[in-house]
Amino acid sequence: MVKKLTISALKSEAHEFAERESQHQEPSLFGVTDGKAVGTYLEHKFQEHLHSKYDYVEGSSAKGIDFPELEVDIKVTSIRQPQSSCPFKSARQKVYGLGYNLLVFVYEKTDDESTRSGRLDIQHTVFVDHSRTADFQTTTGLINIIENDGNTDDVLAFFSERMLPLDNIQAQALAAEVLANPPEPGYLTISNALQWRLQYSRVIQQAGSVEGVERV
Q: Most buried of 71, 150, 173, 195 (most Cβ within 10 A)?
């Protein structure tokens, strides 16, 4: 009987998969330095494993996130520069989060000349709740303004300093929302670009010590 995939099961499977994969020598990865190719390999292998045990709908880059029913997206990144990109929807994502959870595999790749194979030592597997996927400096800055009795002008000035991609009408609306509904601290670093650039160093450091950022 094929089971229904849950977030709890996904975390458990990710933990076991990371331990197994860290011991696996893969010939097709030998000499590969393209992070996107490594990420595609790891994601496909993890999805194949899950499909053998669970019933779920698999997303795609064209359709959005990897597990649409669970609102989870997989990110695979090297420990040397733990970052990835994701689609830009609105500047609001920097304040209130991406709108979905992240499952982040952080690996170190080594090649073995004798076996002509590559190995991915998965050093961190971190689950980031959607409530913690906003930008750290943006959210903590806004929280500080609110705690210091800041007003709309203060929030708008902060948006301008941080160069949030907003027009005047969007900025006014978001400032009003921030004052009425202060954000939770996020733990990603999100850089402005045509696509958001997500950086995970803080997530790796804080995993297990703050609510919503879990080492699995």
A: 150
Side-chain-facing half-sphere of 109: CA atoms under 13 Å: 25
Q: Are 99 and 108 in contact (CB under 8 A)?
A: no
Domain boundaries, the chain: 3-85+99-133+191-215, 136-180
Asked if 134 contacts 176 with a C-beta cutoff of 8 angstroms, the reply is no
Q: For 44-54, b where at least 16 C-beta lie within 10 A, e where not — what string?
A: ebbbeebeeee
> Per-residue pLDDT tens for 112-162?
999 999 999 999 999 999 999 999 999 999 999 999 999 999 999 999 999
Per DSSP, the three-state class of 167 is: coil
Tell me the pairing of strands 3-4 and 54-55: parallel
Specify the CATH number of the domain 3-85+99-133+191-215. 3.40.210
